[in-house]
Every structure is written in structure tokens, then in C-alpha cells.
Amino acid sequence: MNEAPAAPATFAEGLLFSILKRGERDPRGPYTEEDLLRLLNDDVIGINDYVFYEGIGEWKPIHEVFEVQEEISHFVDDGQDTQRVGVAFREVSNVVGAGESIYYIAVQARAGLLSKTKQCVIVTDRHLFIMSETRRGYELEAHPWKSVTNTLMRDEGKDLGTFSILLGGERRLDLHHIPLKQVHRLFQLSQEMRASVAP
Fold it and tell me: What is the pTM of this model?
């Protein structure tokens, strides 16, 4: 019997999964993460069958979902909302160029008064992305590092901070309510990325 992949510990607690076996029309479920692992271990389902859960957007083969979960697990070391990190990882992965690497994903601890949804800041070796949720889905704002003239951080108190981005000396974006640990990491990485593209 093939050994089933170990279930990653990065799925949001209480997340439920639906399964669609290859060749079948009707999905099964909902299942918990433990149920899913048991079904894999018992060969009731296989890693090439399809899985769906809230936030994934479409049915995907089980092995792809688990690979993505393993990839994003190292982005949640600083207490990020795992589900938001997964969405941000997927959205940015769809638009980055060949050879572009995602280094870090920060998630607002609470939404702003106007946006009502949590924003994410994604650092790659070529861009700084800001992901916002809209009524039509997710919107990505991409800023090449050469257009970022400076980044700033400010302590808001209560372990939260603001990460600010200056673009071409003309525009400033302030992202409030990000856990301070994540703000420090964003600032450190942004300084490194800006230095790497400096003329």
C-alpha cells in the first residue's frame, strides 16, 4: 500500500473538505482533515482524486493541494492567518514571472475601517504586492522594487504596526493593523530587496 501524505498542520481549524473521486459525478463529504487522512490511509480515496474547501476556488487534485499547503507553511511562522496566506500565495503564484520567488506574506490582524476586509502584503524578489478582497474576488496591486523609493514602519501599540510604502516620491500607501513581528519582517525584507535593485 502506498503511504498517504501526512496531513499538514496549516489548514484552518474546523475547515471541511468535499471529495470528488475520479470517474464519479457526485462529491462526498463534508470531511474533517482527520477524516481525509483516514480515507487516504484506507485507500478509500487517492491522491489523484479531487478536493474542494472554502477559499480554494476550484476543485483540485488532492496531491496539488497538499503540496501548496506545504509550500505556504513556512509563511505562517509569525502568526499569519493561514487561510489568507493560502489565498495570497495562490493569487500571486498566478501572476509572477518565471523564476520570481515569493519570500514573505504578511496579513493584517484586523481590517481597516473603510476596507472591511483584511489585506495582505506579499514580498517577492521582483515586486511588492498588496492583495485586497473586492466584491468580484481578489485584487492585486503590483509594485516593482525599482518604483519603491522607501518603506517605513510605525508601532501602533498592542503588538500592531503600520507598514508604509513610498512610490516614486509621489504616493504613500499605509497598511495598518499588521502584527508588529510581521511589520519588522516586511521592513527588513523591503530594505534588502530595494538594495538589490539599486543602480
Answer: 0.66
Instruction: Give the angle subtended at the CA of 60 by the CAs of 45 and 83, to the nearest 5°.
Output: 105
Same domain assignment for residues 95 and 50: no
Total number of domains in the chain: 2
Burial 134-162 (b: 16+ CB within 10 A, else e): eeeebebebbebeebeebebeeeeeebbb
Based on the fold, state whether residues 139 and 80 are members of the same structural domain.
yes
Residues paired with residue 36 on neighbouring β-strands, in sequence order: none
DSSP classification of residue 136: T
Residue 49 covered by a domain: yes
**DSSP for 107-134?**
E-SS--TTT-S--EEEEESSEEEEEEEE
The whole domain housing 177 covers 76-197
Looking at the structure, tell me whether residues 83 and 66 fall in a common domain: no
Instruction: Give tens-digit pLDDT for 39-91.
Output: 876 778 887 889 998 888 899 888 777 766 666 667 777 888 877 888 888 88
Distance CA 83, CA 88 (A): 9
